[in-house]
């Protein structure tokens, strides 16, 4: 009996040793980029690119290949270097915009099934080819992966873009009451820039929120704890040249379904109201109003209300035109009826044809030194 237990213990030790990873012989992937293959006649091949930081953390090794799947690509990478490639340090997965328009679920699903991937990996869409972005060098002194990671975290911290990671992206794909979104980036001459928000219909990238409208989308998308917003008030009256900037913006969003359950079941036009309550500090104002006068302060708040409602309706129009529900109206509509009945309905048509109104309330809590 002692002999048998000895054999078992030795066996367990050997099994444990087989999973040993020596740091110097391990390549930690920082970024993964997906693009359509250059010669892709059958539409099944992909170009997969990975970046592995060197020991000095200022240089990266880049591997790129065309394959039928990410697993096949990984096998090719293993034959090209003397390190064991592992995924435990992946910070972002990048999808070229043309590739993302075809659908990315099978690649996202493969990542989720791999236990070495963390749920906090950023999901990012690149305007252009994602692999070219990884191969560039920028003067900031960071690797591309680190730079993108810092950029997204900084922007998301001030609610300028939704914080989209692998967990939230998969959650929203599988939720029949909303659609996922992702940060949209592009390369310019000297750096990488956030260039809007990518809107998905299921797993396909179908529409874009322009960079100047990111904060208005954020107001519709979720409650905001702290953010900044620039308002071009000339959009309300082109004859006037006015603009304002709010700091420390906080807001709460409420979506109200005004229709009865019978409206949904009979597939009549759904009526939806969105309430936006916004509070912020006025940092800057350029215009004819005198901020020392309370009546002019009220006029400025009224102008801001009109602009927020105008921009919100424009964004909602883009979503409805592309049949996407990026702000989760469907989550509220399905609560009116049973889940079984909800699944039988043409949900995208109901949301895209809905009559949506936006009611904003803006409160400037202080005017800073403008009163001095």
UniProtKB/TrEMBL annotation:
Main location group: membrane
Topological relation to the membrane, as annotated: Lipid-anchor
Coiled coil residues, start to end: none
Spore germination protein N-terminal domain segment(s): 19-186
Keyword Transmembrane helix: no
Pfam families in the cross-refs: Spore_GerAC (PF05504), Spore_GerAC_N (PF25198)
UniProt similarity note: Belongs to the GerABKC lipoprotein family.
NCBIfam families, A to Z: spore_ger_x_C
PANTHER family: SPORE GERMINATION PROTEIN B3
Protein name: Ger(X)C family spore germination protein
Species of origin: Paenibacillus vulneris
